[in-house]
Write a structure and sequence with these properties.
This protein has about 80 residues and is mainly α. The chain contains four helices and no strands.
Length: about 80
């Protein structure tokens, strides 16, 4: 699992410059790190590092998610109205 996470992180780093950050890959990295952080048989320092990295990758994923369009003032004032 450690090897896989490191490989994915390396691939993410190499591909980020070519086509921009990949949300799916960042999400997989975050899940791997979260799984490692939950392994009780790992060294406590490694577990803590994986936990911190998992949180950082979660922020990368959150940042890359598309944000919904904010409704206009008119749409907020008039329920059911849609501006075009």
């Amino acid at each position: 699992l450690v090897s896989s996470a490191l490989h994915l992180m390396s691939h993410y780093s190499a591909s980020a410059g070519q086509s921009g950050p990949c949300l799916k890959l960042a999400s997989v990295i975050e899940r791997h790190l979260r799984a490692l952080a939950g392994h009780n048989d790992l060294n406590p320092v490694l577990r803590a590092t994986c936990q911190q990295l998992s949180e950082q990758w979660a922020a990368v994923v959150d940042e890359a998610l598309p944000r919904p369009a904010r409704p206009s003032l008119f749409e907020r004032l008039v329920p059911g109205a849609r501006s075009h």
